[in-house]
Amino acid sequence: MIQLIADDQFLLKDLQRFVEPVEVLDPSGKLLGLFVPTNQGQTAQVGEDDDSHMDWAEIERRAIAEAGQGRTLDQVFEHMKTLTSDPEEQADLQSHIDQIRAENGCDTP
Questions:
Q1: Sign of CA dihedral 56, 62, 66, 72
Q2: Shortest CA distance to 101 belongs to which of 90, 92, 89, 109?
């Protein structure tokens, strides 16, 4: 269950956002009561509203345009090695690279 610490600054503003019961605590952590909002059950509706604003064609277009442009984790660490001149950091990054490649069964970059 969600817990909210009541104070003079945020309580009303925060309670208006919830769609499920909330335990209200005082600043010392003592339970003051349980707030049950009148808008319970609107959770599904909120999700549906969000979907109506999604441009699925644009998402699909971006997925196609960006396909194959990602990097593996060991490639990310390789790039990070070029960003530092600290030998300790480079050695640490190299150990991560070696570990990832060993786990994936690949010794070559």
A1: negative
A2: 109
User: Residue 44 — pLDDT band, cuts 50, 70, 90?
Assistant: very low
Measured CA to CA, the distance from residue 20 to residue 52 in angstroms comes to 23
Q: Show Cβ contacts of residue 98 under 8 Å, excluding neighbours closer than 6 positions.
A: none
Q: What does the H/E/C string look like for the chain?
A: CEEEECCCCCHHHHHCCCCCCEEEECCCCCEEEEECCCCCCCHHHHHHHHHHCCCHHHHHHHHHHCCCCCCCHHHHHHHHHHCCCCHHHHHHHHHHHHHHHHHHCCCCC
Sign for the pseudo-dihedral over CA of 82, 85, 87, 88: negative
The pTM of the full predicted model, rounded to 2 decimals, is: 0.40
State both tokens at 91. 């050695």
β pairing state of 22-25 and 2-5: parallel
Distance CA 5, CA 22 (A): 10
